[in-house]
Prior knowledge:
Elements: E1 11-12, H1 14-21, H2 25-33, E2 39-42, E3 45-49, H3 50-68, E4 72-74, E5 80-82
Antiparallel strand pairs: 1-3, 2-3, 4-5
Amino acid sequence: MELPGIDPQASVSPREAARMLGTRLDAVYGLIWAGRLQAEKRDGRWFVSQSAVEARLSSKAQRKVQRAAPRACRTDGGEMESGGLR
């Protein structure tokens, strides 16, 4: 009988998820328990959705790009200028 949920073939272990995300194993379990990383426990083993790990990697990369992009700031003349704070 097949149970609904995460397909074991399309999942990774928490250890592998930690390696992929570049974080510690306990951080991955924290994400799982907080409901921020899709996973399920079957027969005493955790299965982490590989697509959820990839989505988290993608959003992490997107946040990194947004932080690195120069921000526009107002100069004393009210015009917008690209660059950092003065």
